[in-house]
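Reviewer 2 asked us to include a model.

Predict the structure of this chain.
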Amino acid sequence: MLKSAYDKALVLALAAAVLVVTFLLVRTPSGGGGVEPRFWAERRAVARIEARLTYPEADRYRPRVSAGGCLVPPEPIPLKELAGLEADGNWAGIAAAYGLQGEWNQAGSFLARMSPSPDRDSDLAAVHLSRGAHEQALQLLDGVLASNPRHAQALWNRALVLRDMGLTMKAAETFEKVAALGEQGWSREARAHAVTLREETQERARKWRNARDATLALLEDAKAPLPLQEARLSPGVVRQHFYDVVRAAPSKERALALMPLARELDRIQGGSSLGDYVTRVSSRDFARRSVLAKGYAELVRKRVAAPESLVESVRASGEDDLFVGLALHNKAALRYLPDLLARGQREQDSWLNLFLERELARKEMADGEWWKAEQRLFNALQRCREGAFSARCVELELRLGILYGDLRRLTEAEQHVRTAWSWARQLQEWELELTSLEVLVHISRDRSDFASALAYVEEWSARGGRSPNCYWPHINQAHTYYLALRPEAARASLDAAASCPEERLDLMYGATFAELARARPDPKDTERMRHALDVARASNPMPGDAVYARYIEGRFELDREHARGVELLTQAIEDARKLPSTDTLAREAWTLSYSSLVTDAGRTGDFARVLELMAAQLGTQVPKTCALAAAVHNERSVAVARGPGGELVGDYQGDRKEPFADSPSTQLVPEPVRRVLKACPQVEVLAWAPVFGRTDLLPSDLPWSFRMGKAAPVVGGSAPRRLVVSSVEAPALLQLPRLPTWTPPDEPEPSALELLTGSDATPSRVLSSMSDATEIEIHAHGISDPVLSDASLVVLSPEGNGRYALTADIVRRQKLAGSPLVFLAACSAGRLASTTTHEPFSLPAAFIEAGARAVLASTVDIPDAAGRFFDGVRQRIRGGAAPAVALRDERAKWLARDARNSWTHHVLLVETSD
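Predicted model (structure tokens):
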């Protein structure tokens, strides 16, 4: 009886204990702030996000299920729990709660309150991913994984970023790293993602290669089956090689045997051009043609260029299709373009004609008529889309991206290349996918987006690249690592490139090696550099190449035999000056030689020499007082200030840790250097790219301006004349909104006024009217890269030939006899080429070179009211104020009126010296 009572009491006690524990489990907060576990369970239950968050309660695995395509708005988050989290200052918890519901803007605002950390950066990358800002997400995640390669959430999120960028093989590799961590639920899902991404990508490659090999088999074996099924799956690659098979047919019978394949391709892509082509070839005299056809087949098999004598003999033979094929294989289309156009018109083949349009655009680019090339490619693309969508459309889109890349319009370039890449995937055009990746590497690197550039290279390699596929990825990785200030990784990639079996060392190798050799010298470096230059000179015989090779050698010797290095760099500057300014490689060698000498003078403490070299490069006088000279050469930089009494203070940095694009100007021009200039009434700034154009080099309350060139005397002493350009009719292809009409001020105009508007505001009319103007004011759209500083242009009304842009290269060729004051009231008209270029290739610099005495332009997008700001500066200058003082004072007035006028901090002023 006692035992029974004891047992009952024990049971009751245990039950009470269980109730207490249960109550505590329910009520005890797991994440702080009094939040119940049910709160997080509810958040996870409704979560439909793919990204992983680092907050423990938000990162518990939950299977994602389809919402049936219906977007159901999330339930509001209970305010009580949010208040508890906020009371504890638990920003990570609040951000996670919002993040689970996909309210990323709210999540991002709370993450911004937190100090940087791997977890914070991983979550912030998820916010960027939700906005499609892959570049920022990738940079953050690469930083997290550099410090912790096994950070589970960062690995998962990086895999998502890579997948969304189309880098599926690297995404699969990254998902496999997540799977290897063995996390419950997450590892299984990561492994499934990896398998799917890899198999889908490899299947496209297999189909493309099968189609290519099955078509080329017809060259080797007359009895090989016609690739009819392959033509249905991959018509682009089959058609591309089908032309070679027909050209190589040794007899009429063999040509006619290809008719079923021709008709199948015609059925798929529309028209009858291939069937007609086979019919024409079969009617040729094979007693004469067969020898040429067999020779053509041999060249295709060996993948070698035809001797020039053979191309000319085929050209004279009247076998038009064989001549076209040889010209294409020899990459000599531009040389034979008139002949190819005439023969292409006789062929009446839309596929071939689209190719010829692409080549015509290349010629127009080479002739400097890029606006014609742009319009031609747009028109050809339109026709291509209206017909049977094909690989030719992809090639045209790629060519348009390359054109914009050459023009330094990098955002537009990237958009077109990514479109081409998407189309290539849809059409299963594996070769064009690889080409798109190669172009994206260069565009990303030019935008200083080094994380994306490296990711594209890695994806190219993961896909197998091209054969041979050793040198290209290693040298591109090396150069990208060098620009990103990662010398150890760059040197490792450079050594890997030099070890490739194919001997392809080029100027990129030599330039990268010259820079890296000083960071980690090796006794064998001199021999390696000599070998690299010998190979590069043999394969690059043009004058600009020789100048660039001399720069490379001088850069290499500067830290070994100093006097020899200075001599070579000085010679490179002189040799480059003798070549046309259109020789971009020589111009780059000229710029880099100067920046090497300037930063070297800073290294040795010869600050007066820094000023002399900068003034010589800019074609201006050496300032005696109140001046700042600043230059950057990769990891080296120098800033020199000359105070009001002529005193010199300099700062040299030889081991910068982050690229210049990512660093504030206070890092380049530290406070001790700025302090010397505080008593100056105004300051002249001497700078070349990439420093030229930075509007935060000095405080905004100090009047200062960039100096370039020397003031030219006003020709003829004519009366003041003001030119205003407004109400431009932008080309429809740009899809730009119409700007407000410019209205003249109420006060009387003290100078003659010419107003160009509407269809009259064409580039030729504007250039003609600028020639003797003393004031020039342009209200129009500016186009440039909105992410980084890229070369700018101002959109005017189109000419009859389609030209619509006022660009730096056109302006610098003009003679502005009136020594005008120029106001560019256009969005971003003052932006420069990206930070990886070596020329201050901007409209302000171009106007100075053409003869302007001063130029004001914005380096950011500006509001419609900006015209009044520029007019205020103009009135102050007319009243006798120096341009730098007028800009400072008008800016102060606008900022005092409204703090939202912060864009005025980004107005650039460039002047000539007296």
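The mean pLDDT is 86. The first strand starts at residue 627 and ends at 633. We have added this to the supplementary material.
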